[in-house]
Structure formats: structure tokens, C-alpha cells
């Protein structure tokens, strides 16, 4: 599942304006996390893990389940080769954009 709209609606009580606002806040924060992951891609370490973990929590709370799963896998790459983090970041960025598209086309 790319996006669990029931989870989002449990927070917003089905208020679409509030859904848009909450998603906008998520989207802004996500771009910051993506920037941090990109900056830490070569070195990894605790900053990579913290960014992946924070982004994962935000995605999971909102209902972006597939993105949260990608981020959960990325957390463990803090000590992996830079190439592994680069591949993970590519998948994360793709899933983030896909999640945004699914949200925007929500029923």
C-alpha cells in the first residue's frame, strides 16, 4: 500500500482542508530530510540514521506506508558503503514523489 488514507483521516476526521495542511507540513519536512540524507550519503553514520529515522516516523504517522518501509531499510545503511546509501536515497526520493502523487489524486 502506497498511502493509507484511513490513517490520515483518523487524524483529520476527514477534513480535506486539514489533510492538505498536514500533508503540506509533511512535504516541507520531507524535503529537509531528503537534503540531509543527500548531504550524509557519502559518510553515513549517525546523521544518516537520524534523518532516515525521523523521516520514517513522519511518513508512517501520515500513512505513507511504502515510503516508511523504504526509510526503515535505509536506517540500517548508516555504516554501509556509500553506493548502498545512494541507491537507497534514489528509491526514497522516487517513493516520496510517488506518495505525493497518490496523495494529490486521493478520492
From TrEMBL:
Pfam families: Hpt. SUPFAM superfamilies: Histidine-containing phosphotransfer domain, HPT domain. It comes from the Bacteria. Gene3D superfamilies: HPT domain (1.20.120.160). Signal peptide: none annotated. Keywords: Two-component regulatory system. Residues 22-97 form the HPt domain. This is HPt domain-containing protein. The lineage of its organism: Bacteria, Pseudomonadati, Pseudomonadota, Alphaproteobacteria, Geminicoccales.
